[in-house]
C-alpha cells in the first residue's frame, strides 16, 4: 500500500532522512537546502518544521 509521508516545496529535487527519522534534508533545483526537524520526535506520525534554510 502506498502512502505519502511528506509534502515537499515546489522545486524539491532530492531529500534524505536521518537514521532515527527525526530530521530531513531537502535540496531544490534553485540551490536552496532546507533542514526539517520533527515537531514530536516520539511520534511516528509527527509533522516537520523547517529549522534551517540557505542558498
Protein model, in words:
The protein has 55 residues and is mostly beta strands. The chain has one domain (12-54). 0% of the residues lie in helices and 45% in strands. The chain is elongated. The relative contact order is 0.22.
Number of domains: 1
How would you sum up the global shape? elongated
Helical region count? 0
The average pLDDT score comes to 80
Helix-strand makeup class: mainly beta
> Over the alpha carbons, how many angstroms does the gyration radius reach?
11 Å
Strand order of the largest sheet: 1-2-3-4
Order of helices and strands: EEEE
Oligomer: single chain
Strand content: over 45%
Total strands: the figure is: 4
User: How many angstroms does the end-to-end distance come to?
Assistant: 36 Å
- Unreliable residue stretches: none
* Helix content range: under 10%
Protein name: Anaphase-promoting complex subunit 4 WD40 domain-containing protein
InterPro entries: WD40/YVTN_repeat-like_dom_sf, WD40_repeat_dom_sf
Keywords summarizing the entry:
single chain; 55 residues; mainly beta
Summarize the structure.
This protein is mainly β. Helix content is 0%, strand content 45%. The protein is built from no helices and four strands.
Amino acid at each position: 500500500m502506498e502512502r505519502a509521508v511528506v509534502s515537499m516545496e515546489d522545486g524539491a529535487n532530492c531529500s534524505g532522512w536521518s537514521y532515527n527519522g527525526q530530521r530531513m534534508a531537502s535540496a531544490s533545483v534553485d540551490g536552496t537546502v532546507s533542514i526539517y526537524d520533527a515537531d514530536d520526535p516520539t511520534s511516528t506520525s509527527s509533522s516537520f518544521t523547517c529549522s534551517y534554510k540557505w542558498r
